[in-house]
Design a protein that fits this description.
single chain; alpha/beta; D-Maltodextrin-Binding Protein, domain 2; 13 strands
Length: about 280
């Protein structure tokens, strides 16, 4: 008879069969308590106005007994490395094309388990009000990563500034440009730094969230935005394969998606520059 059973026997003077059943019940209760007191859920994200919505969801989760820590990263590479290294349990900052490229480059094996928000990108300028006013040889900045750079090139094509090879998609590179009538000088910068390039270039691909953080322009002032209809670019909740059914993660996502206060924080941060994809 184990120690738990002996203790129960002394307390309740149960026969052996009853003691063993009670011991099993006590252990089951103990397992339930351990699950309720599970370790802090660590969520990684890239610095963005999105952080206030995540913190609000974390506050609401705390009120429901789920402890959540939001960890900010200042670049778009570390959140995946941190997930792979088990420093965090889930990350929330990337869309599917970015994730696919990160898996290819870093050898990661991750799973996107739920969509979040879709963010617009735009073409911003502090030098001109119309694309027609760009001078020959103007400098244009786009993202330097393979996915977001392609998204920027597609936007330049929509603006009528360049022509890409037929069938080019978000994986396009500058090598896919077949016509550049204004002889634009295209420079590539880390996506999070594009907002700070507006004083130095004539036109830049921009993310409203980073534009807002940098305070370099009105996030709504883009000369052209892409649409919000392509759910391929929705930010995803990304986990390691063994965490796909982690109830803590599923519970937090449900809080994030259904909380009116979270939605208010998103509206405050992004106005009409985002949409939900769930």
């Amino acid at each position: 008879m184990n120690r738990v059973a002996r203790t129960l026997s002394r307390l309740f003077r149960l026969p052996r069969a009853g003691v063993l059943a009670a011991a099993g019940f006590a252990l089951a209760i103990g397992a339930g308590v351990a699950h309720a007191d599970s370790p802090t859920l660590k969520i990684g994200t890239a610095t963005s106005p999105q952080i206030d919505a995540l913190k609000e969801a974390a506050r609401e989760a705390k009120a429901e007994g789920l402890d959540v820590k939001i960890i900010e990263f200042t670049d778009w590479n570390t959140p995946n490395a941190a997930l792979a290294n088990r420093d965090i349990d889930v990350n929330y900052f990337q869309h599917i094309p970015f994730l696919e490229n990160a898996e290819k480059q870093g050898g990661y094996k991750f799973v996107a388990i739920a969509p979040g928000t879709i963010m617009k990108i735009g073409l911003y300028s502090k030098k001109v009000k119309r694309f027609e006013d760009l001078k020959d040889g103007a400098t244009v900045a786009i993202a330097n990563d393979p996915v977001n750079g392609g998204r920027g090139l597609l936007l330049l094509q929509r603006a009528g500034l360049v022509t890409l090879k037929p069938g080019a998609d978000y994986r396009a590179t500058t090598l896919d440009i077949v016509a550049n009538p204004k002889h634009l000088k295209i420079v590539q910068l880390e996506a999070s730094q594009l907002a700070r390039s507006l004083d130095d270039v004539d036109l830049a691909q921009g993310y409203p969230s980073f534009i807002k953080l940098a305070g370099t322009a009105d996030p709504n002032s883009a000369l052209l935005f892409d649409g919000l209809e392509n759910k391929n670019f929705a930010i995803q909740w990304v986990v390691r394969p063994e965490s796909v059914n982690d109830p803590r993660i599923r519970r937090f996502i449900a809080i994030y998606q259904h909380s009116p206060q979270v939605r208010k924080e998103l509206d405050k941060a992004f106005g009409n520059l985002y949409a939900v994809a769930w």
